[in-house]
Design goal:
3 strands, globular, Rhomboid-like fold, mainly alpha, 223 residues, 9 helices
Length: 223
């Protein structure tokens, strides 16, 4: 299912959401310009699960150990990876920023990404494959949207072979189905080779992290 837009209008200009989208785009263009140096760049700023598991999980915190938990969010592995992530962020992020406020939304996004990455690392602690992408952080945004706007409608394209019907689906069903698929795929991938592909547990973990953190951020804003 491909979301096209939602029915909730933001009351404020989502400047942070636009900034996040722009930053991901600029960093991706930088990746494209690196040529032979791209692999070294990715290895420096992406999450290497085995390295994170051997430092952060053992309480050996350092700048070099923690830095990739943030920088990896803004790296992407291709145009489809980037465009797919930014589409979801564009559609669902503005409303969450509207409810949380601009600066709290930025922290919420980053913390969701960090939480999502740690869940993925937990399930693949021996992997040396780089973990990159904003999808874990965006999953946190989806988790918050799921709680805030379950009755919203999402205009959705459903690819069916050569047909592409467009229908309106409730956000509760759209995001609930999305989370269920991530959880099931992650469960099936336990014990499998994590040398590439989709970080299912980052998606599921980010979604839960976002839903869990939302009440704290809402309470802080009311106070």
């Amino acid at each position: 299912m491909i979301p096209l837009r939602d029915t909730i209008k933001s009351k404020t200009v989502p400047v942070v959401n636009y900034l996040l989208i722009g930053t991901c785009g600029i960093v991706f263009l930088l990746e494209l310009s690196l040529g032979a140096g791209l692999d070294r760049f990715i290895r420096t700023y992406a999450i290497i699960p085995s390295q994170v598991a051997g430092t952060v999980f053992l309480g050996r915190f350092s700048f070099h150990a923690v830095r990739p938990l943030v920088t990896s969010i803004f790296l992407h592995g291709g145009w489809l990876h980037l465009i797919g992530n930014m589409l979801y962020l564009y559609i669902f992020g503005d409303n969450v920023e509207d409810r949380l406020g601009h600066l709290p939304y930025l922290f919420f996004f980053l913390l969701s990404g960090i939480g999502a990455a740690l869940v993925e690392v937990y399930f693949h602690q021996d992997s040396t494959a780089p973990l990159i992408g904003a999808s874990g952080a965006i999953a946190g945004v989806l988790g918050a949207y799921f709680i805030l706007y379950p009755r919203a409608r999402v205009l959705t394209m459903i690819p069916l072979f050569i047909f592409f019907p467009v229908v309106e689906i409730s956000a509760f069903f759209f995001l609930g189905f999305w989370f269920l698929m991530q959880f099931l795929e992650g469960t099936l991938a336990i014990g499998a080779d994590a040398s590439g592909g989709v970080a299912w547990w980052a998606h599921a973990g980010g979604f839960v992290a976002g839903a869990a953190m939302l009440p704290v951020f809402l309470l802080a804003r009311r106070r």
